[in-house]
Amino acid sequence: MDKLIIRAGQPLSGVVKVDGAKNSVLPIMAAALLTHEVCTIHDVPDLSDAAVMDEILCCLGASTAWNKSERTIEICARNANKTDAPYELVSRMRASFLITGPLLARRGYASIPLPGGCAIGARPIELHLKGFAAMGAQIVKEHGFVSLHAQQGLVGAKIYLDFPSVGATENIMMAATLAGGQTIIENCAVEPEIVDLSNFLNSIGADVRGAGTDTIRINGVRELHGAGHTIIPDRVEAGTFMVAAALTGGDITMENIVWDHLKPVTAKLIEAGAVVEQTEHGLRVRRNAGQPLRTVDIKTLPYPGFPTDMQAQFMTLLTIAEGTSIVTETVFENRFMHVGELKRMGADIKIEGRSAIIEGSPGLMGASIRASDLRAGAALVLAGLAAEGTSELSGFYHLERGYCDLVSKLRGLGADLELRP
Ligand code: EPZ
Q1: Tens digit of each residue's pLDDT (9 = 90 or more) over 290-318
Q2: Which helix (H) or strand (E) holds 416?
Q3: Residue from 60, 32, 36 nearest 174 by CA
Q4: What is the model's pTM?
Q5: CA-based torsion, 180, 181, 186, 189: positive or negative
Q6: Which atom belonging to ligand 1 lies closest to the Cα atom of 308?
Q7: Which residues pair with 368 in a beta bridge?
Q8: Residues with CB under 6 A from ligand 1
Q9: How far does the centroid of ligand 1 lie from the alpha carbon of residue 193, in Å?
Q10: Does the pLDDT value for residue 182 go beyond 80?
Q11: Residue 135 Cα, ligand 1 centroid: separation in angstroms?
């Protein structure tokens, strides 16, 4: 399996262009199933997760044309007549479950392998199913599959989400676009990716209002048409490079960002002692190496709180900030898989329930480390960049799920990296 060799180097500096958001392109690719006309999606990052979603759409009978150098994909679901997705594909990516809402809405039936848990938690889907059931779907779970029937079509309903689940909000929103009547989703997720999906759905003829607030209203329509759409920038990729600048005492400008989407990370980086400023084309983060980092407490929350997808990366930063920092993970129940590996690099971290207590001090040491999941992997790459000596990271494939051209982008900023297949 591939190994990434990370040699501690200079502070990272330069300009990097942020790609389209993984967590936006996946639901929007699934939403293309809602129409038989062509949808053209721009700023599609070349990620292994997007490749899995592409494979699933083709398995269902859709035709796709992905121009990776142009970062554009065309999807036509005219012939997407299949309504069951294969286990070996779905099990590779939990977000595959996002095809359920579109299939149910367009075909009146879906049979999807129950997504298992993953490294960061059980990842249940009962809120998705609660929404589909409220809209009139009959649901049967058997032999590891969930089958959903709505042969008479879905009917608009009022749905309250016990937790503002991103995926459940997206799945229900997509299903409701073709339902009879109005669907109201209360206590829904308000992430920027929800707004991006809503904008795409409205561009193909849906009637979705309120995305970005805690209540979304969808008035069902008879059918939807094709359109073009550009994916919003990836706020987690941008946040990862922001941390890299603060961590290495460097100076990085990120282009193609949305300032508002990065407010929680920006606020915490400034608290930690970095300088963050808006530029003409994006955002610049710097910290002069002589200026010590300050301790910071982090608590992950649904948007607009501090993003759980940035928790691991920020923890790496706090391992070298002199003093005690506390990181509390409230969104997922097992998202501290990076702690053990950071400790092997010399970090002083104790886990107490949902919190990690970090006694920060300079002096991470290079080591052989293993990525357990996407964001833990990103945290370990950052740690290798700040450590003394050389680190060997195995499991780099996890990072290719969510970071496009990460090695070349980091090399372009001065990192000394070697990817060994
Ligand atoms: C999305 O996952 C993102 N993935 C995740 O990004 C992100 O961490 C997460 O939202 C939170 O922001 C994609 O968009 C593809 P949730 P999702 O449903 O939709 C519980 C990354 O690293 N829950 O908001 O699965 C669940 O167990 C990935 O890019 C239920 O209890 O997240 C979790 O504790 C990781 N029942 C919490 O809600 C349900 O029916 C948040 O889950 C659904 C969710």
Answers
A1: 889 999 999 999 999 999 999 999 999 99
A2: strand 416-420
A3: 32
A4: 0.97
A5: positive
A6: 8
A7: 392
A8: 22-23, 26, 95, 121-128, 163, 165-168, 189, 308-309, 331-332, 374-375, 402
A9: 12
A10: yes
A11: 22
